[in-house]
Inverse folding.
């Protein structure tokens, strides 16, 4: 017995130790990763970010060096703080605050003292920095915008957030990543691949040397330059025209689906989001909940399309063989079902056939066509689905698949939609005739509408709209060079195109003709509502216009939305005509039309709902005349309220 | 022929395990201590180079020990013991202070730690005394005398502020027990350890209550003949006194760092802020060593490839924390192998000790096994966070000349004694 005590204890201890080792090393173990080993410092070598050019090769976005003043708190020796603070334009209190904050973080590790000095500030400091021990200057690369336009297209880069760091192992804290626009969509192309060096550290966090002689180290790969489809001159012009209005313009080249310009208003100068003032400016833009300069209306604003949608009703009517271009319908200032007027209309000749139906934008005509489509089938639900599928083949009612990361689906109702609303088979075509004229349940975004026009301009197909023109040494995504066919046969387009042409010739856009260019267009006016103090209040109608030109071999298809612009040809139509002339001729000859746009503002109209007073809409609204805007007028997204931006 | 015959008598299994441990230890010292590339295994500016020299010198020692007559050790045990005690006393006059302990002699560029050598000297003395025909370990008088042999060096070492080395002398308890110490001491020892832990972890009331339950339980149900109540009552009162004593000892006598180690081990500290602070100060070593071991995984990062070892994240890694290098670079397989080698060595020594015909050899063998076991238990247990921090080296593994030589002498005297077993009637 006495012999067994030590023996037992030894064996038991042996087992306990092996069990503990098993727990520590096998059971409890996360797979070992060099990246997560904090004994290894990972030093990243950031490649040059790719440049961005416009469709004609004009440089839009480049890089600029920026200089951070860095310091290691422990190594700072007593210094002439007064002189140092004067150099950096800070107070002594700031100095103490920065120092203590960094010291608390780590006395041994480098911290940023002042981020992103300008080149001027750097020049002054460069001479003297060696006098201040413990301080040094670190170079970083920032974006350098060669232009003041296209903030919504180009986007910006900023520090990566924690969500991305956790989900994408490529990004580390402090890395820059595309936040919006092209910078976001083509992040992986533009950023390149950063190089990495693994450095062995000791327990004081000092470097001892490369880990395993650097066999795992990699060199950075430079980001690729890209060209985007934007015509920067047209883009600039569009942004100028949209000043003091809210809305969006999308112009597409129908023969390729390239987005020539993509304007949202109000917008901002992309340079605001670079450098030291980025976060301050960003929060100013972000908190402007009235003008919403960060909200890209050209992609995201979902409005009822109004009358431009009527051309689809015509096309579907022809395709479904329920109407011929010659069939006439009468209009008595609206569409009547028995004695009940379902929809109103303005004054025009009656009865009229398709051509004038489009040109005069007759509501009654399209309600008739719509009812014939829906009622062609035994059940309205069947007809509804047929109609819905035709409409959706134009890229409406779902994400278009363009290469920018924001957007809205829009809404195209189908039988299911009304079954849910009214109950199965408890509705008929008269329940939703507003769809025929682009009101009711139909909603679209400007880019969807522009794409629809491009499909009409192409007589039956469209290319998925895209912003990328070329990537250095790479071909663009195949889906952007593939035709998407609509469900409408080619021959049905001619009468409709002719009708749109007559919109300019004799119809609602008669006054907007551009000498020498055959434009096909369609005006639109859409009712809209807003909740004010919990009450649904109608605001002045949106002004909408779609067009393409020239009539044969179209070069541009365009959709313009101007919020609360009252009627189609008033703001949107003028802007569309000017844009078309600018793009096709390269210059604008219609100076009086241009002057009108540049001297009229809708800011008063936008301020109304927030005034807290009673206000009138449409007829009771008045035009606000302002001094002519020029290119050099400072862009200020929220001009209704004075807030200054730090440049 | 005579000579070959003798060589075969050595227990080669023990020698092979010894060599494996020393060699593997040397590899890990190299890993834990090298700065820059390893060009010369005998680079005297680096610990692994010095260790190479220590190991070479060990061979000389071994030959010397094995060449001497086996009877020499028994005969000269008293003198060796006396010399060792003198060397410990001499430290108070000539000693060199390293890390707060006055435990070294500086000779030229070298240092010697007499407390390491005192271990085998004390073992020899204990074996000699116990093997005396006049000694009866069942009597209290002889127990006390043997105890005195052990307590003398232990106190001297404690006075030099080397508490870790003092704890090692508890190993002799196993020897005492083997040689006839009454069972009741074992019961009391286990009982007192349990009582102390309870008193510290909870409080005196709980500890005393548990003790009273156990004592009265034993009194009423455990014994056939019930003696008077006075005995259990006295025992309980003693327990209460001991609980208070332990509490007082912990609160007032222990130095703050020792107190913190125990408090951490028993998870007494609940304040998260204080705990975090402790993790960065006294728990730092343990924390880093556990992290290094965990990061090794099943197969380890490979020789010289441990990132935490290369980065010197674990302080004292080539000495007391050498096992964390094994954990990181050789993984679970390597560390478990080391544990198995140690357990194998200890069991082999025990087996051989039981085979001895002379009491002296048996007792000495037991001393060797117990001392090595205590080192193994405390060192490896500490590095893995199972035992409060007590700074003693891992025999044959940790860097250091005195330690390596002392353990080699300790072990090889036994191998010599064992080889001579056939010659004794």
């Amino acid at each position: 017995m006495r012999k067994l005590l030590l023996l037992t204890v030894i064996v038991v201890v042996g087992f306990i130790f092996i069990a503990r080792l098993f727990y520590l090393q096998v059971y409890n173990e996360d797979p070992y990763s060099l990246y997560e080993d904090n004994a290894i410092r990972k030093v990243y070598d950031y490649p040059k970010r790719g440049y961005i050019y416009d469709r004609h090769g004009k440089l839009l976005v480049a890089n600029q060096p920026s200089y951070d003043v860095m310091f290691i708190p422990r190594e700072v020796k007593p210094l002439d703080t007064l002189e140092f603070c004067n150099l950096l334009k800070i107070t002594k209190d700031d100095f103490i605050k920065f120092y203590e904050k960094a010291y608390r973080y780590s006395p041994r590790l480098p911290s940023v003292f002042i981020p992103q000095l300008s080149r001027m500030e750097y020049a002054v400091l460069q001479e003297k920095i060696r006098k201040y021990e413990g301080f040094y200057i670190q170079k970083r690369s920032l974006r350098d915008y060669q232009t003041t336009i296209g903030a919504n297209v180009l986007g910006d880069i900023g520090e990566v957030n924690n969500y991305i760091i956790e989900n994408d192992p490529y990004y580390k804290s402090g890395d820059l990543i595309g936040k919006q626009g092209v910078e976001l969509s083509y992040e992986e192309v533009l950023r390149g691949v950063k190089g990495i060096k693994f450095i062995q550290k000791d327990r004081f966090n000092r470097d001892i040397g490369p880990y395993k002689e650097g066999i795992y180290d990699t060199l950075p790969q430079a980001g690729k330059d890209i060209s985007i489809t934007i015509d920067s001159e047209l883009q600039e012009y569009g942004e100028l025209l949209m000043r003091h209005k809210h809305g969006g313009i999308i112009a597409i080249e129908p023969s390729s689906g390239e987005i020539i310009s993509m304007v949202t208003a109000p917008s901002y100068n992309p340079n605001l989001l670079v450098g030291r003032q980025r976060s301050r400016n960003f929060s100013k833009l972000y908190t402007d909940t009235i003008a919403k300069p960060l909200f890209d209306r050209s992609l995201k604003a979902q409005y009822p399309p109004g009358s431009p949608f009527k051309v689809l009703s015509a096309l579907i009517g022809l395709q479904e063989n329920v109407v011929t271009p010659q069939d006439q319908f009468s209009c008595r200032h609206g569409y009547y079902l028995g004695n009940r007027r379902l929809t109103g209309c303005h004054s025009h000749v009656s009865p009229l056939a398709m051509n004038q139906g489009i040109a005069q934008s007759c509501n009654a005509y399209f309600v008739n066509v719509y009812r014939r489509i829906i009622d062609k089938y035994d059940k309205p639900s069947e007809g509804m689905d047929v109609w819905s599928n035709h409409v959706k083949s134009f890229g409406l009612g779902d994400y278009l698949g363009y290469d920018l990361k924001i957007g809205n689906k829009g809404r195209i109702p189908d039988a299911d939609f009304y079954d849910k609303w009214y109950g199965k088979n408890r509705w008929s075509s008269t329940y939703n005739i507003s769809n025929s004229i682009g009101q009711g349940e139909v909603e679209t975004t400007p880019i969807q509408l522009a794409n629809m026009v491009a499909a009409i301009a192409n007589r039956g197909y469209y290319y998925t709209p895209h912003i990328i023109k070329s990537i250095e040494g790479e071909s663009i995504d195949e889906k952007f060079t593939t035709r998407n066919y609509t469900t409408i046969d080619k021959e049905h387009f001619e009468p409709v195109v002719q009708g749109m042409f007559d919109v300019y010739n004799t119809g609602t856009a008669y006054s907007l003709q551009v000498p020498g260019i055959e434009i096909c267009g369609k005006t639109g006016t859409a009712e809209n509502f807003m909740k004010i103090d919990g009450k649904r209040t109608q605001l002045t109608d949106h002004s909408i216009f779609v067009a393409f030109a020239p009539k044969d071999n179209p070069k541009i298809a365009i959709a313009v939305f101007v919020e609360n612009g009252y009627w189609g040809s008033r703001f949107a139509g003028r802007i569309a005509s000017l844009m078309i002339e600018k793009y096709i001729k390269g210059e604008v000859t219609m100076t009086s039309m241009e002057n009108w746009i540049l001297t009229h503002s809708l800011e008063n109209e936008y301020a109304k709902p927030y005034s807290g007073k009673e206000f009138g809409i449409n007829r009771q609204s008045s035009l606000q005349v302002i001094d002519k805007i020029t290119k050099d007028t400072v862009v200020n997204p929220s001009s209704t309220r004075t807030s200054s931006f730090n440049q | 022929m005579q000579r070959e015959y003798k060589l075969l008598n050595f227990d080669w299994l023990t020698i092979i395990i010894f060599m494996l441990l020393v060699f593997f230890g040397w590899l890990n010292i190299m890993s834990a201590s090298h700065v820059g590339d390893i060009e010369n295994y005998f680079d005297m500016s680096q610990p692994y180079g010095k260790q190479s020299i220590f190991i070479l010198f060990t061979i000389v020692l071994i030959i010397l020990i094995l060449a001497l007559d086996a009877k020499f050790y028994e005969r000269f045990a008293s003198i060796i013991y006396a010399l060792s005690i003198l060397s410990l006393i001499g430290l108070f006059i000539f000693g060199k202070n390293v890390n707060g302990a006055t435990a070294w002699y500086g000779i030229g560029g070298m240092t010697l730690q007499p407390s390491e050598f005192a271990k085998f000297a004390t073992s020899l003395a204990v074996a000699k005394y116990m093997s005396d025909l006049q000694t009866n370990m069942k009597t209290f008088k002889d127990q006390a005398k043997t105890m005195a042999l052990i307590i003398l060096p232990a106190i001297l070492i404690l006075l030099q502020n080397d508490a870790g080395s003092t704890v090692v002398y508890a190993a002799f308890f196993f020897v005492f027990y083997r040689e006839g110490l009454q069972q009741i001491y074992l019961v009391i020892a286990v009982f007192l350890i349990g009582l102390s832990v309870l008193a510290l972890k909870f409080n005196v009331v709980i500890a005393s209550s548990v003790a009273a339950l156990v004592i009265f339980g034993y009194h009423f149900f455990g014994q056939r003949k019930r003696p008077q109540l006075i005995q259990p009552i006295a025992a309980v009162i003693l327990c209460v006194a001991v609980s208070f004593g332990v509490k007082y000892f912990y609160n007032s006598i222990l130095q703050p760092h020792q107190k913190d180690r125990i408090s951490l081990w028993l998870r007494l500290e609940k304040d998260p802020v204080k705990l975090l602070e402790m993790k960065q100060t006294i728990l730092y070593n343990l924390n880093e060593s556990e992290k290094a071991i965990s990061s090794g995984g099943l197969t380890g990062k490979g020789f010289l490839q441990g990132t935490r070892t290369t980065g010197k994240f674990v302080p004292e890694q080539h000495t007391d924390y050498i096992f964390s290098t094994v954990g990181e670079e050789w993984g679970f397989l390597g560390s478990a192998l080391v544990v198995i080698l140690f357990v194998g060595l200890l069991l082999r020594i025990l087996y051989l000790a039981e085979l001895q015909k002379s009491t002296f050899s048996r007792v000495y063998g037991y001393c060797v096994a117990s001392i090595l076991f205590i080192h193994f238990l405390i060192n490896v247990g500490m590095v893995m966070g199972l035992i409060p921090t007590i700074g003693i080296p891992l025999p044959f593994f940790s860097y250091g000349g005195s330690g390596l030589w002392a353990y080699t002498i300790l072990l090889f005297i036994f191998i010599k004694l064992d080889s001579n077993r056939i010659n004794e009637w």
